[in-house]
Amino acid sequence: MKYSKAMVASQLFEEPVDPLVASQKSIFVVGMICCEKELQSSVEHSGGQRVRLDLQKLDRFSLFPSQVAGIEGHNPSGHYLIATKFGIVEVVTTSQKVNLRDELENICKACK
């Protein structure tokens, strides 16, 4: 299952959108963290383009390159995404008996 579909299936997030499109309203994006606070979105949503992240509104977070994350925020100019919520996507194998919705809720609570 794709990471974005797993997060949407949890019913905690909206369908992800292209993070490069200017928007004053809050949007949800899923992508891979690249160096220097950039998010590379999926080919499906933005052709694999990168957007700079402004993380100043987050109280606490931990990022590393190649980490897959779900980010809620807005992009007023189309040049950078101002993050207001940050969630980490963890890979769940079929051998693990984990309720994905509960896990995502716990992750999101920890990020608030």
UniProtKB/TrEMBL annotation:
Keywords: Nucleus. GO terms for cellular component: nucleus. One of its GO terms (biological process) is DNA metabolic process. Residues 17-85 form the DNA polymerase alpha subunit B OB domain. Pfam families: OB_DPOA2 (PF22062). Its main location: nucleus. InterPro entries: DNA_pol_alpha_bsu, OB_DPOA2. This is DNA polymerase alpha subunit B OB domain-containing protein.
